[in-house]
C-alpha cells in the first residue's frame, strides 16, 4: 500500500510539473526548454550509465553536451534572434563533438564503447529534438500540441496497466513478448489502445488536438501514438534485460528513472512528428 501511495504521489508531481511547463503559458517555449533539457540530460545519463557502466566520464560528458545541442537544434522554426543564436551555437558545438568523442579515446587507457555514446544521440536526443521541432512547426511554440501527445501516451499506459493487471495475468492471460517483458500482455495492449483512442477523441472535442482535422484523424493519431509507445516500452525492456537491470534510475520513487518514464516517447515522438509532417504535405 505504501509503495502505491509513493508511486502515485511521484507520478502526480511529474505529470503536474510537465504539463505546467507546457500549458500555463502555451506560447512560451522557455519553461518547456528548461524542464525538458533537464529531462533529456537525466535520461541520457541513465542510458549511458546503463550501457557503459562506471567510468569513461569524459565521453559521457561529451555525449551529454551533444544531446543538449541536438535538442536545441529543434528550434529551427523559431524566428527570434535568441533562437537563431542558440541554434547556431548548438550546431557548431555538435559538429565539434562529433570529432571530440573519438579523439577522447587517445587519452583513455580503458576501452571506450563509442557505439553507446553515438546511439544516445539517435535513441534519446533526436526524439527530444523532434518533439521540440513538432512544437514549433508553425513558427511559434504550441505547448498544447506536446501536452496532448503526452496525455495520450500517459493514458495509454494507464489503460495497459489497469486492463493488463485485471485480465492479462495468470493462466488465462495472453503474453505479448514474454522473452522481452514477461508481465506485458495482449490484454494490456487492448486496454492501451482503447484508452488512447478515447483520450484522443476527447482532446479533439476540447479543441486542443488537431482541431482543424476531422475526428477520425485524431483517432488515427491516438492509435499510432499508442502503437509506437508500446514498441518504445518493449525496446527499453529488452535493453534492461540485456544489462540485467530492473530500473534505469531512481530519481522517481516508485517509477524508477526518467528513461523508464520516457521510453515510450523515444519512438512515439518521431512517429508524432512524421504524422504531422504528412498532414502538412497532404
Counting helices, strands and paired strands, the structural category is mainly alpha
Distance between the termini: 51 Å
Mean pLDDT figure: 86
How many DSSP E strands?
Answer: 0
The main β sheet shows up as: none
Q: Tell me the radius of gyration.
A: 19 Å
Helix count from the secondary structure assignment: 10
Outline the low-pLDDT stretches: none
Assembly annotation: single chain
Task: Describe the protein.
The chain is mainly α and 282 residues long. It folds into two domains: 115 residues, no CATH class; 141 residues, no CATH class.
Q: Which features would summarize this protein structure in a list?
A:
single chain; 282 residues; mainly alpha; globular
Topology:
Layout lengths: L1 H22 L6 H23 L4 H16 L8 H24 L9 H22 L7 H25 L18 H20 L9 H28 L15 H5 L2 H17 L1
Describe the structure in brief.
The protein has 282 residues and is mainly α. The chain has helices at 2-23, 30-52, 57-72, 81-104, 114-135, 143-167, 186-205, 215-242, 258-262, 265-281. The chain folds into 2 domains: 27-141, no CATH class; 142-282, no CATH class.
Amino acid at each position: 500500500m505504501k509503495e502505491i501511495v509513493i508511486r502515485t504521489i511521484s507520478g502526480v508531481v511529474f505529470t503536474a510539473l510537465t504539463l505546467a511547463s507546457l500549458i500555463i503559458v502555451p506560447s512560451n517555449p522557455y519553461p518547456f526548454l528548461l524542464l525538458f533539457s533537464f529531462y533529456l540530460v537525466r535520461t541520457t545519463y541513465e542510458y549511458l550509465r546503463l550501457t557503459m557502466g562506471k567510468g569513461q566520464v569524459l565521453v559521457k560528458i561529451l555525449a551529454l553536451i551533444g544531446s543538449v545541442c541536438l535538442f536545441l537544434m529543434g528550434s529551427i522554426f523559431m524566428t527570434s534572434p535568441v533562437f537563431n543564436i542558440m541554434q547556431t551555437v548548438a550546431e557548431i558545438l555538435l559538429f565539434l563533438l562529433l570529432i571530440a568523442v573519438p579523439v577522447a579515446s587517445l587519452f583513455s587507457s580503458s576501452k571506450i564503447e563509442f557505439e553507446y555514446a553515438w546511439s544516445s544521440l539517435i535513441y534519446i536526443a533526436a526524439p527530444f529534438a523532434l518533439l521540440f521541432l513538432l512544437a514549433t512547426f508553425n513558427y511559434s511554440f504550441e505547448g498544447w500540441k506536446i501536452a496532448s501527445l503526452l496525455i495520450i501516451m500517459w493514458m495509454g499506459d494507464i489503460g495497459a496497466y489497469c486492463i493488463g493487471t485485471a485480465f492479462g495475468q495468470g493462466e488465462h492471460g495472453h503474453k505479448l513478448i514474454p522473452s522481452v517483458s514477461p508481465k506485458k500482455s495482449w490484454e494490456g495492449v487492448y486496454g492501451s489502445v482503447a484508452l488512447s483512442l478515447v483520450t484522443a477523441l476527447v482532446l479533439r472535442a476540447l479543441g486542443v488536438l488537431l482541431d482543424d482535422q476531422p475526428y477520425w484523424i485524431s483517432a488515427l493519431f491516438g492509435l499510432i501514438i499508442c502503437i509506437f509507445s508500446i514498441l518504445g516500452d518493449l525496446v527499453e525492456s529488452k535493453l534492461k534485460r540485456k544489462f540485467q537491470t530492473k530500473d534505469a534510475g531512481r530519481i522517481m520513487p516508485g517509477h524508477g528513472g526518467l528513461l523508464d518514464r520516457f521510453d515510450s516517447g523515444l519512438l512515439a515522438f518521431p512517429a508524432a512528428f512524421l504524422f504531422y509532417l504528412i498532414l502538412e504535405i497532404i
